[in-house]
UniProtKB/TrEMBL annotation, chain A:
Subunit composition and interactions: May interact with RGS9; this interaction stabilizes both proteins and increases RGS9 GTPase-activating protein (GAP) activity, hence accelerating the deactivation of D(2) dopamine receptor-mediated signaling.
Name used for this protein in its record: Guanine nucleotide binding protein (G protein), beta 5b
InterPro entries: G-protein_beta_1-5, WD40/YVTN_repeat-like_dom_sf, WD40_G-protein_beta-like, WD40_PAC1, WD40_repeat_CS, WD40_repeat_dom_sf, WD40_rpt
Gene3D superfamilies hit by this protein: YVTN repeat-like/Quinoprotein amine dehydrogenase
Transmembrane segments: none
Domain of life: Eukaryota
Recorded name of the encoding gene: gnb5b
Keywords, ordered alphabetically: Coiled coil, Repeat, Transducer, WD repeat
Annotated PROSITE patterns: WD_REPEATS_1, WD_REPEATS_2, WD_REPEATS_REGION
GO BP annotations, alphabetical order: signal transduction
Coiled coil residues, start to end: 12-39
Family as reported in the entry's similarity comment: Belongs to the WD repeat G protein beta family.
TrEMBL record, chain B:
All residue ranges annotated as the DEP domain in the record: 32-107
PANTHER family, per database record: LP21163P, REGULATOR OF G-PROTEIN SIGNALING 11
Keyword Ribonucleoprotein listed: no
Keywords on record: Membrane, Signal transduction inhibitor, Transmembrane, Transmembrane helix
InterPro entries to which the protein is assigned, alphabetical: DEP_dom, G-protein_gamma-like_dom, GGL_sf, RGS, RGS6/7/9/11, RGS6/7/9/11_DHEX_sf, RGS_DHEX, RGS_sf
Protein name according to UniProt: Regulator of G protein signaling 11
Transmembrane region(s): 200-224
GO MF annotation: an example: GTPase activator activity
GO cellular component, one term: plasma membrane
Gene3D superfamilies membership: 1.10.1240.60, Regulator of G-protein Signalling 4, domain 2, Transducin (heterotrimeric G protein), gamma chain, Winged helix-like DNA-binding domain superfamily/Winged helix DNA-binding domain
Length: 357, 486
C-alpha cells in the first residue's frame, strides 16, 4: 500500500519530529506572555469559608444508570436519560415525572432540553440524535412524534440546542461534531479534527455566539467556529481522556474534566492552561464539570462517587460532597444558580442546595 | 472513558492510572519517616508484625492530605476495596472500620495492578491448595467455581494439582508466622479479584473486558499488519501542522490582563450568585416557596433590583433578558433608532430559525431595513451594505452576519451607554424591588406544599390558542403559581 502524500525524503518519523518542534515552539510562545499565575492574582480575594451543601431532592425512577441530564430554562424542570433507554422529563421541584419516552436503544448518553421548553433531544448508541416535542396529552405516545435529526457513524456522546429549537449540535464517538437543522434533518456543518472519540461539547455564551468547545479521547480540547467549521484553537495538556468541557460564564475561558483525576482551566485570550485542580487524595477520574453562576466555584463529579467543589480563582478545593452510591455521570447548576443537580450510575438524580452561610 | 474504550481495553488503561495513584498513597503510608506507625498485632496465639489499626489509618490520612474525616474514610475505603490494605480480623468484610481493627498492607506481589489480569490457572491452583490443605474448607461459592474450573481447564488439571502440592510443600518449610502472613495476603488477593457474589460488578466486568480486550487486540493487530498503512499517521500530523502554525500566528493577551478579568467578573456577579450570596426572599429549594421565581419571571410588572442592576453589566445581559430588551426598545423608540434593534432581532431570527424560511425572511429584511427608501432603514457603512446586498442574491443563513455585527456594535457603543445614563433606566432602578428575606418558619418541620406550575410547553400551547397563530420558539415563562397545584 503506497503511503500517498509523502514527499521524497520525508518519512513519518521526520514529520513527527517536525510536529514536535512546532509544539515546543508554541509552548515557548505561550510562556512569553504568561507573566502571572491565577492563584497569584487571586491572592487579594478573601478565602471562602466552609460551604454548606444539602441534598434537597432525590429523583428516583430510572431503572438503570442515569447517564445525562439537562435543566430547562424555567429553572425547575429537567430531562434525564439512562442506560435502559428511558428519557424522563421531571418537575424537580415537585418530583413529578411529566413525560417519559422509551427509546429503542440502550445507553442514551446525551440529552438536552430545548430553549423554549417545548422539546427534548436525546441520542446514544443508536448513533442518532432525535428530537421529541413535548406533548401535553398524557396519553399520547411521545415516541410517535419523534424526529430523527442527527446521524453519525458511531455513538452520540453529547448534544445541545443552539439559541433556538431549530438547530442542534452533536458530538460523536466517530471523532466529529456536527450542526444539524432540526426541521429538515440536514447537516449544516461538520467539524473534523479530533483523532479519537469526542466525548463532550459546550456552546460559548458570547455576544457573537458562534463558537463552541469540544473535548475528546485524544486528550485535546478544541474550539470551533460554527460558521466555517474551522478549528480555531486547540489545547492539549491533559494526560488522559477529556470527559467533559464547560465554558466559564463570561465566555473567555473553559474548564475540562478528565480521567487523569484533574480538572483544568483554560484561558482563551491568553491561549493557555491557567489552573489545574487536583489533590493527592483525589484518585479517580472526573467525568463532569460545571460552574456556579458567578464562575467562582467549579463543581466536578468523579468516578469515586464524590463531587468535589473547587475554588476556581484560588485553585483550592472548597468542599466535597458524598451521597451517591456509584459514579457521578453529570453535574449541572440550574440556570439561575439556585441548585445543583447530579446524575449518577446509582439510578438516581440528586438536586442539592449549596450556600455560604 | 467511553463505551468503545471499555471494549478496546481502555478501561484497563483508566484503571491503571487510578491504581498508580493509590499505590503512591500506599508508598507514602509506608515511608519510614513520614509514614504510619506500625505495631504488632496479636491474632489468637500468633503475633503479626507490621499491622496498623483503622483509627491510625484515618488519622494519618487526615493529617497528610488535610482532609476531613468523612473523606479519609472514603479514601481508605477505596484502598481496602481495591486490595491495597486488607483487614485481619474479618477478611471477607472489605470495609475500613475506624476503630482498633487491625489492617495490613498488601505486598506488591499481590497488587491488582502487578498481576493483571488474575489468571484462571492461578485461581484454580489457589482453590486446589485450599482443598488439599483442609477438606471442606472451601466456601459454597468457591466449591461451585472449583468444579466449574475443573470442567473448563480439565486438560491442565494434573498441572494444577501438582503445582498446588508443590506450593504447599514449600510453604511448610517456612516459619509459621511467615506462612500465616502469606496465606492472609493470598486470601485477600483472591477476595478482591474473585469476590464471593458479584457484589462488585466491577470485577466481573473486569473479567469480561479482559477477554474482550484480548480478542479485539488480536483483531486490531491483524488488521494493521495486513494493511500496513501509514496514511492515517500522515493526515493526523498534517492537521497538527495547520493547527500549530495557526496557533503560532495568533495574537495572545498578557496573562495579567486575562486573569484579572476573571477576578473582576466573579466579584461583579457575586451578589447575583445564589450560592455565594443567597437569594431573596428565599431559595425555593430550601423553603419550598416559589416566590423567588415568580418575582423574577418574564411578565412581572416590577422587576427586582438585582435584575435591573445586571442589565448594566454588559450589553449582552440586557439583550438576554426579555424585559431588559423591551425596556431598551422603548428607549430606542424615544431616540428614533428602534430600527437598529428590530434589525438585529430579525437577523437573529434568520440565524437561528427554520432553514425553509430563510429566503422569505431575508427578503423581508431587505424590504424593511436595507432597500433604499425603506420604512426602517438602518445606517450601515457602505462597504458592509454593498457586501450584504451582493450576498442577498444567494441568501443563506449567515448572509446578514456582517451587517448584524455592525449594528450590534453600534448599539453597544452608542445607544447602550446612553440608555444606562437615561432617566428611563434610572427610574426603573429606583422603583425596582428588593425582596424581604423570608423569616425562617417557626415550625421548621412543617413542609410547605410544593406547587406545580404549567410547563413551558403548556404555556406555549395556551398562547397559541389565545392568539390563534403559531408562536414558534417562544420564551419559557412561569405563570403565577397561584393558579394550579397538584
Amino acid at each position: 500500500m503506497a503511503c500517498q502524500g509523502l514527499q521524497g525524503g520525508e518519512t513519518v518519523a521526520s514529520l513527527k519530529r517536525e510536529s514536535e518542534s512546532l509544539r515546543k515552539k508554541l509552548e515557548e510562545e505561550r510562556k512569553k506572555l504568561s507573566d502571572i499565575e491565577l492563584n497569584q492574582v487571586a491572592e487579594k480575594i478573601e478565602v471562602l469559608g466552609p460551604l454548606s451543601i444539602k441534598t434537597r431532592r432525590v429523583l428516583k425512577g430510572h431503572g438503570n444508570k442515569v447517564l445525562c441530564m439537562d435543566w430547562c430554562k424555567d429553572k425547575r424542570r429537567l430531562v434525564s436519560s439512562s442506560q435502559d433507554g428511558k428519557v424522563i422529563v421531571w418537575d424537580a421541584f415537585t418530583l413529578n415525572k411529566e413525560h417519559g419516552v422509551a427509546l429503542p436503544c440502550t445507553w442514551v448518553m446525551a440529552c438536552a432540553y430545548a430553549p423554549s421548553g417545548c422539546a427534548v433531544a436525546c441520542g446514544g448508541l443508536d448513533n442518532k440524535c432525535s428530537v421529541f416535542p413535548l406533548s401535553l396529552d398524557k396519553n399520547e405516545n411521545l415516541s410517535a412524534k419523534k424526529k430523527s435529526v442527527a446521524m453519525h457513524t458511531n455513538y452520540v456522546s453529547g448534544c445541545t440546542f443552539t439559541s433556538s429549537d431549530m438547530q442542534i449540535l452533536t458530538s460523536s464517538g466517530d471523532g466529529t461534531c456536527a450542526l444539524w437543522d432540526v426541521e429538515s434533518g440536514q447537516l449544516l456543518q461538520s467539524f473534523h479534527g479530533h483523532t479519537a472519540d469526542v466525548l463532550s461539547l459546550d456552546l460559548a455564551p458570547s455576544e457573537t455566539g458562534n463558537t463552541f468547545v469540544s473535548g475528546g479521547c485524544d486528550k485535546k480540547a478544541n474550539i470551533w467556529d460554527m460558521r466555517s467549521g474551522q478549528n480555531i484553537q486547540s489545547f492539549e495538556s491533559h494526560e488522559s481522556d477529556i470527559n467533559c468541557v464547560k465554558y466559564y460564564p463570561s465566555g473567555d475561558a473553559f474548564a475540562s474534566a478528565s480521567d487523569d483525576a484533574t480538572c483544568r482551566f483554560y484561558d482563551l485570550r491568553a491561549d493557555r492552561e491557567v489552573a489545574v485542580y487536583q489533590k493527592d487524595s483525589v484518585i479517580f477520574g472526573a467525568s463532569t464539570v460545571d460552574f456556579s453562576l458567578s464562575g467562582r466555584l467549579l463543581f466536578a463529579g468523579y468516578n469515586d462517587y464524590t463531587i468535589n467543589v473547587w475554588d476556581v480563582l484560588k485553585g483550592t478545593r472548597a468542599s466535597i460532597l458524598f451521597g451517591h452510591e456509584n459514579r457521578v455521570s453529570r453535574v449541572r447548576v440550574s440556570p439561575d444558580g439556585t441548585a445543583l443537580c447530579s446524575a449518577s450510575w446509582d439510578n438516581t438524580l440528586r438536586v442539592s442546595w449549596a450556600a455560604y452561610l | 472513558m467511553t463505551i468503545n474504550t471499555m471494549a478496546k481495553g481502555g478501561w484497563h488503561r483508566e484503571q491503571m492510572s487510578c491504581f498508580r495513584k493509590m499505590e503512591k498513597v500506599i508508598v507514602a503510608m509506608q515511608d519510614p519517616d513520614m509514614g504510619m506507625k506500625m505495631r504488632n498485632q496479636r491474632l489468637l496465639i500468633t503475633v503479626i508484625p507490621h499491622a496498623m489499626t483503622g483509627r491510625d489509618i484515618i488519622a494519618w490520612l487526615i493529617h497528610t492530605y488535610s482532609i476531613c474525616e468523612e473523606e479519609a474514610l472514603h479514601l481508605s475505603g477505596l484502598l481496602v476495596r481495591y486490595g491495597y490494605i486488607y483487614p485481619l480480623k474479618e477478611p471477607r468484610s472489605l470495609v475500613l472500620r475506624p476503630d482498633e481493627s487491625p489492617y495490613r498492607f498488601q505486598t506488591p506481589y499481590f497488587w491488582t495492578s502487578t498481576r493483571w489480569p488474575a489468571s484462571e490457572l492461578d485461581y484454580a491452583i489457589y482453590l486446589a491448595k485450599k482443598n488439599i490443605r483442609k477438606q471442606g474448607e472451601l466456601m459454597e461459592y468457591e466449591k461451585t467455581r472449583y468444579s466449574l474450573l475443573h470442567k473448563r481447564i480439565n486438560h491442565t488439571w494434573d498441572f494444577v494439582v501438582m503445582q498446588a502440592r508443590e506450593q504447599l510443600r514449600a510453604s511448610k518449610q517456612r516459619r509459621k508466622a511467615d506462612r500465616i502472613v502469606f496465606e492472609c495476603q493470598e486470601q485477600a488477593y483472591w477476595l478482591i479479584n474473585r469476590p464471593p457474589v458479584c457484589l462488585l460488578l466491577l470485577y466481573s466486568l473486569l473479567h469480561f473486558c479482559t477477554i474482550l480486550f484480548y480478542i479485539i487486540l488480536y483483531c486490531t493487530l491483524l488488521y494493521y499488519t495486513i494493511l500496513c498503512n501509514a496514511l492515517p499517521y500522515y493526515t493526523t500530523i498534517e492537521t497538527c501542522f495547520t493547527v500549530f502554525k495557526q496557533a503560532l500566528g495568533r495574537n495572545r493577551v498578557k496573562s495579567s490582563i486575562c486573569l484579572e478579568s476573571f477576578v473582576k467578573y466573579s466579584e461583579q456577579y457575586q451578589n447575583h450568585d445564589p450560592i455565594m450570596q443567597g437569594s431573596l426572599p428565599s431559595n425555593p429549594w430550601i423553603s419550598d416557596d416559589t416566590a423567588y421565581w415568580t418575582m423574577n419571571s418574564e411578565t412581572v410588572p416590577i422587576p427586582t433590583r438585582l435584575r435591573v442592576e445586571r442589565w448594566s453589566f454588559s450589553f449582552m445581559e440586557l439583550l438576554n433578558d426579555d424585559m431588559g430588551r423591551r425596556e431598551f426598545m422603548t428607549y430606542l423608540e424615544k431616540e428614533f433608532s428602534a430600527e437598529n434593534l428590530c434589525f438585529w432581532q430579525a437577523c437573529e431570527d434568520i440565524k437561528h430559525g427554520e432553514s425553509s424560511r430563510i429566503i422569505e425572511k431575508v427578503e423581508m429584511i431587505y424590504k424593511n431595513f436595507l432597500a433604499p427608501g425603506a420604512a426602517r432603514w438602518v445606517n450601515i457603512d457602505s462597504k458592509t451594505m454593498d457586501k450584504t446586498l451582493e450576498g442577498i442574491r444567494n441568501p443563506h443563513r449567515f448572509i446578514m452576519d456582517d451587517a448584524q455585527m455592525h449594528i450590534y456594535f453600534l448599539m453597544k457603543k452608542d445607544s447602550y451607554p446612553r440608555y444606562l445614563k437615561s432617566d428611563l433606566y434610572k427610574n426603573m432602578l429606583a422603583k425596582a424591588i428588593v425582596p424581604q428575606e423570608t423569616k425562617k418558619s417557626v415550625f421548621p418541620f412543617v413542609r410547605r406544599q410544593r406547587h406545580a406550575n404549567p410547563s413551558p410547553a403548556q404555556a406555549v400551547a395556551q398562547a397559541t390558542e389565545e392568539d390563534g397563530h403559531a408562536k414558534g420558539a417562544g420564551q419559557a415563562g412561569t405563570k403565577s403559581a397561584a393558579g394550579s397545584h397538584v
